[in-house]
Amino acid sequence: MRQVLADMEIAFHEEDDRLSFRLGLKTIEVLVTCWGKPDDIVFILIRLPVRAAPGCRAAAGEFLHRLNFNARRKFWEIDYDDGEIRLSAYTDTLLGPLTDRIFRSMILSLLMTADTVFPYLMGVLTGRMQPQFADDQAEAALAAMWQSHL
Question: What is the pTM of this model?
Answer without folding.
Answer: 0.81
